[in-house]
Structure formats: C-alpha cells, structure tokens
C-alpha cells in the first residue's frame, strides 16, 4: 500500500468565514490556524502547504476570558537597549483588535515558509462586513 503525497498543483483551496463575536479570542485563533494549515482535510501532509483561505469577521467583539484583558501584555522590542514597548490587551483590543487576533493566530502557525504562506491567506475584519463575497466563502462553525 502506498502513501498518498499531494502535489502543490493538486490542492483545492476553499474559503471559510469565522465569526468571532462573543467567542474567546484563543479558540477562534486555534480554529483559524487549523484551517490555514489544512489539518481538517483528510489529505493533510505536514510538509505541503494544503491549507485554505480564512476570513475572520467581528474581531472587535472577540472576548478574553478571566483577567487576561487587564493582565495580558504585548511586548515589542524597539532594538534600542532598555527600550521595550508594552501594550496591555485592554488597550490593544480597543485600538487594534485585528492585530490582537493576528498575533494569536501567528503564535499557532509554524515559523517557516509554509507558515508565512498560511498567514498570507488570513483576512481579518473588525466588523461583520468583508470584501470577499465574490469568493463565496462557507461559514465555519466552531
């Protein structure tokens, strides 16, 4: 019996929409990461980029459970000695909710060429309107 190995040209990519309204940010990010990698497919192969396109809407309405809104901090180095920017997630979710979602998804994707290609297929929107209706995306239920 031979093992199935998908070729890059034989992969069919679908479009999925995930609604993040009222759902925990990490749960939505985990589902999006699995769809971007293609782990939901029976033809999943770790060394082949076989993931789908993912649209996440209502990023502004995603919730953080527990005390994460006040205690979780995003650190960003400025490359100067002793200078470290830090932003509390309550501020980040108010000002840039799409960035918070992108950081959560990026942490669940591998740091290699397949991961970079997967992140290029991620589209984030703060509200319920998105500009990809022509692709006829399917709704993904969590």
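-> sequence recovered:
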């Amino acid at each position: 019996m031979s093992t199935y190995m998908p070729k890059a040209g034989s992969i069919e990519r679908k479009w999925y929409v995930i609604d993040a309204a009222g759902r925990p940010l990490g749960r939505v990010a985990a589902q999006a990461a699995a769809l971007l990698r293609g782990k939901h497919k029976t033809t999943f192969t770790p060394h082949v980029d076989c993931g789908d396109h993912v649209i996440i809407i209502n990023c502004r309405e995603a919730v953080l459970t527990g005390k994460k809104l006040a205690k979780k901090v995003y650190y960003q180095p400025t490359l100067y000695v002793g200078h470290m920017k830090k932003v509390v997630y309550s501020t980040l979710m108010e000002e840039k909710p799409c960035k918070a979602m992108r950081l959560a998804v990026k942490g669940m994707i591998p740091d290699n060429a397949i991961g970079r290609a997967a992140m290029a297929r991620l589209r984030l929107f703060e509200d319920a309107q998105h500009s990809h209706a022509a692709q006829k995306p399917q709704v993904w239920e969590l």
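The CA atoms of residues 30 and 104 lie 8 Å apart.
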